[in-house]
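In response to a reviewer's request, we include the raw inputs and outputs for one of the modeled complexes. The three entities were modeled together in a single run.
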Amino acid sequence: MVGGKKKAAASVEPLKTKESSEPPQYCSWLMKSEPESRFEKEIDLKVQSLISTACFPKHFGIEELKALPDQTGCWDGVRNYQARNFMRQMKDGQLAFFYHSNCKEPGIAGIMKIVKEAYVDHTQFDKKDIHFDANSKADNPKWSMVDVQYQRMVKRYIPLSELKKYHLQHRAKGGPLKDMGLFTRARLSVQPLTTEEFEFILTLEDKEPL
DNA sequence: GCCAACGTTGGC
DNA sequence: GCCAACGTTGGC
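The model returned the following structure tokens for the whole complex.
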């Protein structure tokens, strides 16, 4: 099934650029978001209601993306240079896994599509926003975001624990997840996936949980 | 809730 | 430019 369509496979292949100095081009991604907010878990609801809700990070799981008009939203609030730089490499039409982090069972919940390439993240200029950045100047914004559109849920939720088992297997004996960023660069919230990683994870949808 | 890993900041 | 202190991420 995966790789069966030549055309699709070709469009997902990482493009080796002619100029060897250029960074490698990635075609698929993994983006993390917290479906539950740590603040809202820990701060008393009454106290919270007295404070501007904009001061708190929002819950943003895949259900929230799905509920937006056109099932499309901006991926704002990324405040890490590596993650930002990866977002700036994203191209219209590329696919990304929606990963649920910092929750009961972290893992891959669904698939979304990049529908607008990197542009200025407005939240950096909003004093009331949790992601406000006083060091960012309007004539030289530091932070970018992309727009993503919900595509579908995965056929079954793919928990981190399962990906980790494969990662460990593959690290020992070889396999597509041996260097997966989820484990080698655990704190990076926007990560590129190789074609092999992306396609292998898709095959897990049709397999029994490990 | 705890804490390890790691990115950022700032003193020197 | 080093590096200690600090803050954040995110699994457990």
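As requested, we also summarize the result in words. The first strand of chain A starts at residue 28 and ends at 33. Chain A has one domain: 6-204.
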